[in-house]
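Archive record:
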Amino acid sequence: MHDGSMTDVAVIFLPSWPPERLLPVARAAEAAGVQELWLWEDCFKEAGIGAAGAVLGATERLRVGIGVLPVPLRNVALTAMEVATLARAFPGRLVPGVGHGVQEWMGQVGARVPSPLSLLREHLTALRALLAGERVTVDGRYVHLDDVALDWPPTTVPPVLSAATGPRTLELVGQVADGVVLTGDHSPGSVRRLRDAVEDAWRAAGRAGSPHVVVNVATVTGPGARERLAKATDGPDADLEAGAGAAGDVTQMVEALARYVDAGADTLALTPAMDMPAEDAEEFVRFVGEEVAPLLGR
């Protein structure tokens, strides 16, 4: 079996679940030994920073990932202030991610921009500089800062990840982010190609180390699991690539997840079935933490 000792196993709290379920699920995840809980800032559901703060305050060891904060919604100074506040209060436990946002949603709130790529580059560059304690002056196409520095920059600077799929965004992430968040519709083969694209841009930029790769993985358990997952990869409205996701009993699940580890995933963020009722979420995180993660080497 693949040695997953270097891969963290996380679970995702679906934003379709009500906010009052968040803390019971987070506590269950920590009790089960899950390393990370990931949150989505989907419009118009739970907010990422507010939810992250609630989870961090209600747990002791659990890391919290945000995948991702849509940059068109946010002034970069505010993003930096919020991230820095949580990073100082809970050092080493926050993994923030940003991204373009769903363009239809950005249009609904009047935040859609002509060049999402330019905005993401400017936001990422300024955000990482502010979190590093730098004083920033920039007059970009979208980001404008005049002698701005955080009074309370993080003592432990968190990595700032970015969502990406298209080739230009993957190149941008390799140049200016600390890693990439990949959506759950990708197969292991696709993950390998996308990771290679980010790493190529990373090396071309002369950066040391390597990017952190978070992969959301569609995960279906229970009766008819494999059939339910297959429906998402078949037909004109398919949400997943062929070969994407993990389904079945614990042995089948681990075999599928090991392929993502082999493809270069550093963090596997397991996404529950979208039809999973909120009241089943605690049992799901217990299954992941107590049965799946140990067989991946954690």
User: Anything to note?
Assistant: Residues 25 and 123 are 32 Å apart (CA to CA). The mean pLDDT is 94. Residues 8-295 form a domain with the TIM Barrel fold (CATH 3.20.20.30). The chain has ten helices and eleven strands.
